[in-house]
Amino acid sequence: MRVEIVAVGTELLLGQIPDTNSQWLGEQLAANGIASHFHQHVGDNHDRIVLAFRTALARSDALIVCGGLGPTQDDITRAAIAEVMNVPLERDGEIVEVIRAMFVARGRAMPENNLLQADVPHGATVIAQTRGTAPGLVCALGQKVVYAVPGVPYEMTDMFERAILPDLLERQRSTGETSVITSRVLRTWGASESALAEAVADRFDALADDGRVTIAFLASGIEGIKVRLTARGDDAPHASALLYEEEALVRRLVNDRLGDIIFGVDHETMEDAIASRLVARGTTLAVAESVTGGLIASRLVGVAGASAWFVGGLVSYASEVKFDLLGVARGPVVSASAAEQMATGVRALLKSDIGLSVTGVAGPLEQDGQPAGTVFVGLSMAERTEHVALRLPGDRPRVRSYSAISALDVLRRALDRHVAATPVISK
Amino acid sequence: MRVEIVAVGTELLLGQIPDTNSQWLGEQLAANGIASHFHQHVGDNHDRIVLAFRTALARSDALIVCGGLGPTQDDITRAAIAEVMNVPLERDGEIVEVIRAMFVARGRAMPENNLLQADVPHGATVIAQTRGTAPGLVCALGQKVVYAVPGVPYEMTDMFERAILPDLLERQRSTGETSVITSRVLRTWGASESALAEAVADRFDALADDGRVTIAFLASGIEGIKVRLTARGDDAPHASALLYEEEALVRRLVNDRLGDIIFGVDHETMEDAIASRLVARGTTLAVAESVTGGLIASRLVGVAGASAWFVGGLVSYASEVKFDLLGVARGPVVSASAAEQMATGVRALLKSDIGLSVTGVAGPLEQDGQPAGTVFVGLSMAERTEHVALRLPGDRPRVRSYSAISALDVLRRALDRHVAATPVISK
Lengths: 427, 427
Known about the structure:
3 domains, homodimer, Alpha-Beta Plaits, 5-stranded mixed sheet, Maf protein, about 40% helix, Molybdenum Cofactor Biosythetic Enzyme, Chain A, about 425 residues, about 25% strand
């Protein structure tokens, strides 16, 4: 099975938006052991879309088309697929009803052109839409297949996981490719990609000869470095056993050489790691943010069930707010003592068990004589008040994002350090 | 002249890095009026690179190849070009000397494999390297041409601007094509893609016959719908005049049928729109957030210079915080009156001219008898206190993101409504 991805949209050719879909799909296909040798971008032009599809079908077994399924005049993927399949487009009554119902539910009038989305090439099957109005398509052409999904990432990823991946895996199995691939991602914060590579270099070399297990490093920007372990076995239990064994080895190497930098696995975020620790402790948290300006609170609120442990936060952007509401001593506000006072102050103001704070300089200009990238994290717990000083790289958005995840990591490590030594705090 | 971009590298297919090169090159080509109809990604495999090049040459006049020019075993672009050109590779003595001199200058021993970078297909000309060790190539094939540049963006952009763009423009002139393309993006919030398409349908149809100006719609998820206008003229002033005229027509149509939904142009964000209005008014803002949990504050702090008008915010996630610090009356906190009290409360607490608030249900569960997606925005200004009730679609992260931009849009519209009628507020 060789899968080619074709992203449709003139905006991609003009460079107006990045093609994150092909990257995401590439990652998913690789993680599932499905080969992908080519990607294409093509604009909103019927003849050229048809040419791109035919080119892809000549050199690949399956085709995932992203984009061009919307309700407007430049959404012409459906018609191009129909031409390649040599069939007419037919309006699907069920889809029409679903789209009408969506507009009724939102209390809005439906522009007629929305019904274009109900046009389906004869013989294609439909991937029901759950997050938007455009359905996806599965179009068989002899032994080959064309999948079409909307270009909106949120809708595309849902359809890929729900319908396309299972179908691809089934097709792969039916061709006699029966090995099973399983993978796990270890998520780290606080080490560089090269330091991680050096820490596991022995395993990397040992595995190169084997071929059943692979290690890859994915720099995930503001979310740290991911270490992806992939194992191929004759069946699922075999692949899982290989993966389990390798994970133990890699965790030990990383921990011995770089310390406690693995904060989660797979889709687990830093805030998920915080949430599980706070829930286990029965402890509540409040945050005071300056340079991050609400980023930390926003990440915490993003965890479902946050109300059990997150009280709230103060975005003390103006210095006066720090002085008046948090009891920070007048003077420079980018300092270790200001960070500690902010943490203690927000804990008192919002009546939480723990206070976490960040103050720093996002740039581009320096502040209080401190260069951009200078950040202090403050932490106030029943046991003690402490701070961590950081020097972060990058431009304004980078410094802010790094500050947020760094502060959460300070809290994660502190919770792990103190949990064994101290009694659980009750409100 | 139709230029195709081929990015070489297995890491692109696996989704391990984003392909920023194709996006950047696409933008540059469009800005210079050079057509580009297709992009491809291909991995580090000789036969497949050759196939990708031949496919590109079959449908385009020029080919820009990024990547695969380095010194390691998987850098095989040079050999693939030589095969397509049907010529041998020859080692270039001058390049050998340049590479040797670079290592001497850095006081480092040169690994022998670096000299692979001195191999040039017979008949190709060299683009001298100034930022790295690998030179670029210009390879003529009859009337067509293949340019090859390293995949490192910093080296690629230099070679494109210095050698490839001038050569492409010269070739374009020699074929008699001299037109210039210019484009502008209108950013909207509050209308569906289909409603926008219907609003400008007359222009869309009129332009289809003309061909000099085009309209396209880009759904940008949580940031609204973008309307892209592109004009092609004989020269830059001509293209700009066409674009200016079309923008006025489209703005009038959109405004007449859908109201004041255009909040910015090109890269202008909703928070940029807020910032410029607050700066013009000399007015300060504070926010009280529940469901958005710091998202709004974080967006505002992201604007450089925000300290001039943004005081701070309270993330009043727990109801007690709303009651104790914002003076919200005890009772259900997802309501119009709670939103208004939050806005008034945060304005008093943080001593700002304007208070903006959001309270709502992100889901997945309902709250206070209100279903997920129910959101109230509160706004407290000197002139009056008001609220807007919203019903937003999507899962938890969507509802939160839509709430944030919707609240900012409520403020934007209020600032535009009141600015003419009332005196400027001073602190």
